[in-house]
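Fold these two proteins, one after the other.
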Amino acid sequence: MGKEFKKLNKIAGLYLKLTDKPKYIVYKHKLKEYKTNKKRQDKINLFTAENNFLNPDQIIALAKQNGELNIVHSGNAGDIIYALPTIKAITKLISEPVNLYLLIDQPHNLHPLYTHPLGNVTLNKKMAEMLIPLILEQDYINGCSIYQNEEIHLKLDLFRKLPIWLDKGNIIKWYAYTTGVVPTVNEPWIRVIANQKFSKEIVLARSTRYRNPHISYDFLKQYPNITFLGVESEFQDMQKELPHIKFQPVNDFKQMAQVIAGSAFFIGNQSFPYSIAEALKIPRILETSFETPNVIPDGENGHDFYLQAHFEWTVKKLVENLV
């Protein structure tokens, strides 16, 4: 253990500043570090006191005691997809069925400068209903529905109360921090029947959030077969650069996953469709956000970029591999 930091009173601090400037600079740095650590420790203490977070042994015991394990998550939709590897890892620890409940209409607390298709809630009824068919398709999920006051054994969105930077790192790891269960992320955790009608299509999705402002998609004009997934306003925005791009509406996210699974390859930024491409582990290219780099391609076929030249080179190589 290092020597405990001792905070100086105002007079001692002023004296140090006047008599030993280099030592005072070091002291100010350590003072800032001390305040940050104390604030974080206070939040951790509050989190552990107020929240019923579990370790793997407790999760196993709860499942055995109840004959099932009921898990709840309140979204966003992409966060739920990135939670599935942890749920899958949990199913390997227990023999009881796992049910996932989606808690809707929870406040998003979105920054005023940002917009989101759902406004200021993390998950609404329509989005949940679009997610459920895809989640039920996974053999490690016993049931999935909108939460209606069922008994819950495990809350997967406790990470929001931890003093961690949610805009950095890897979204998939959030759930390990509150469960102790380590997910496998370099293998597919979603399986669907691929829609082969899109086997020659580059499938693309680009939300208004998480964009790299130094990137242009204009070079994709040379590739004739491009299909867009997402909301129609995003499609119309992409049409300004790529007038030939086609729009593919879907009834639910199982259909979206089938289109992505059947595509030649996928391009997207850190929006919901990319989470599906990552879960499927198909050939995929991620436009990484400078401000919020919290999505990381992992495993085979994953590519990401910050620079235009690398974006164009990766697309060219993936197209060449199709021949």
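Now the second one:
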Amino acid sequence: MNKVVKNVEEALVGIEDNMTLMVGGFGLCGIPENSIGQLVKMGTKGLTCISNNAGVDDFGLGLLLQNKQVKKMISSYVGENEEFERQMLSGELEVDLIPQGSLAERCRAGGAGIPMFFTPAGYGTEVAEGKEVRVFDGKPHILESALTADFAIVKAWKGDTEGNLIFKATARNFNPMMAMAGKITVAEVEELVPAGELDPNFIHTPGIFVQRIFQGEKFEKRIEQRTVRTK
């Protein structure tokens, strides 16, 4: 099945106000830059965004926050975004902070059809408030629920016309599990090739999880904090 759409505008058709979106990436690495830019243009409001982080003030999901398009963030790390902090402390933005491993597993579980699971992460902290606790091998675990989304938006290094994806280096973080957990998964890729050209042994996300794919353009690939070695 050819899942290619001609551009980002066509790829995001159907996203409406108050939907839940999963957005792949880690920091600014592996984020779907074209799709985020299109969401800003669309002006869709009241979004719940599930993402490891909220970008920075002037890039990534930070652009949606600046535009007041996000109602709630479900994340694990938010320390690089002053606008995020301001909105959270002022009560403008609802925030659900989750241990990073738990966030990844909750997305993976959603894609695998596992509704809930027990984990020791977060026990004894605010994360555990109101959640069931059970003891396994003498260690307390809390019950966490799976996460799914109306749309999952991911970014891959290579993809083919059937939606098979290969991620590169650090970009192979939250992208694969989020691709599994969206009712509709949109993949923007740096290189789009015909079906059959990708070695099946190196495919990270099978095309069965992807409904739409397009070749992105003009990726900036910014670095959050550029660190250089002193002479």
